[in-house]
Amino acid sequence: MKQAILPHLYIQRNLRFFLFLLWALTLVSCETTCEECEKCEECEEGEEQQGGNPTRLTFYVVSQSTQSGQSQSEAADLEERKIRTIYIYAFDDHHTFPDFFEDPFVNHGYGVDGVYRVNMDIHGTGQKRFYLIANPPKYIQTQLTHRISEGTLRSMIFCMQQPIQQLSQIPQNADGTLNTSKENTGFPLSNQLTGYIHRYSNREGLYLTHEDNPGSTAITTLPLFRALGKISVYAYRETAAPQPTVGGTPAPQENVTITNLEIFNYTCDGYFIPRRTPGGLLDLEAMSKKEVKVGIQPVPLLKEPITVTSNYTSRNQLRLTYFYVCQNSYGKAIEGEINPGVPDTEGNRTTKMVINLSDGRRSEISLPYLRRNDHLHIRIGISLNVIKIEFEEWNLNTVTPDWDDGLDPNKHPQTNQ
């Protein structure tokens, strides 16, 4: 009898163990399923925070250095316009992270002429704050991740210890030391603007407008501006009075040599991305707050003395040099400007230039304020008695002096896509 009961008890114990094991496996499976569900919910929640699936926005990015007041006789520097690398961010008040587009290796000829076609994925519609960056130096490029904050973008500082005459010298380190390597990242370009995203009613895709009105003109081109200003210096012989004659012909004039040309009180740093007023103009007051470092040591701008002969007149001027320098919001306005510069209350923020001639004459001039993307032309007229300095007035037919954000279609014709 006992022999019959023992196998029965053995079977019951095994059955209980099997049921317990089955219950444990079911519990683990349920927990795993719940965790997966929670993860899915988190993913869905993340997608909801980004506005679900993105929609494509197509536009062109155009380098605006061609509108820098360059004379027709002056060959444009293609390196100032070329887009080598590009990064675009679009922020709003509803999504955790910005919409992001990058092309760190622009090739196949795109961007060579300063024009680049962008197909950017955008989440949601409504107001978007765009930040455009091209050809950033290395220390800025390393910060340009897809999750960078808007505050970090707005606070990035460009630093350059002194004016440069070659684009290969653009600093690659945050301390502003001039680059001595052969690597050239291109001319740094940037812009900041605010527009409104709308969906097409008759086809897939999005379009951008200047105002919060779907019926407004679609914006198809976004401008990029140089992050540095440019100064070109010319010289010529000026005849202030009738020249003496010898045998009925004008007596030959003595040549004049410019032995030295220097600049000091130049700005060494500032915002990499511009600040703008509500009207889209450059906010000089806000930008001047980060123009902290001043170069008080004179920097020579000529490699050797240059002789200005009588062949160079006001209509045929000799180009002495050109160079690039950080924006300086301090100083007086050039004729033709709408807004004044920031007052130089400290007395050392207005950039100065010194000219020395071979006959011992010396002249020190104060330069007007210089914004990024400005191209200032300084013309030095030399006569027997005086040194006359002229700052070329803006040609308002080809130049917009205020460098607005480029979104107003009434001022900026748009490209058909």
CATH fold description of the largest domain: Immunoglobulin-like
- Tally of individual helices: 4
Q: Quick one: biggest sheet?
A: 9 strands, mixed
Helix content: 10-25%
Organism: gut metagenome
Protein name: Major fimbrial subunit protein N-terminal domain-containing protein
Q: Can you offer a commentary on this structure?
A:
- With 417 residues, the protein is of the alpha+beta class.
- The protein has three domains: 1-49; 55-161 and 169-226, Immunoglobulin-like, CATH 2.60.40; 229-391, Immunoglobulin-like, CATH 2.60.40.
- The chain is 15% helix and 31% strand.
- It has four helices and 24 strands.
- The strands form six sheets. Strands 1, 2, 3, 4, 5, 7, 8, 9 and 10 form a nine-stranded mixed β-sheet that branches. Strands 14, 18, 19, 21 and 22 form a five-stranded antiparallel β-sheet that branches.
- Strand 2 and strand 3 (99-103) form a beta hairpin.
- The model is unreliable at 31-49, 66-73 and 396-400 (pLDDT under 50).
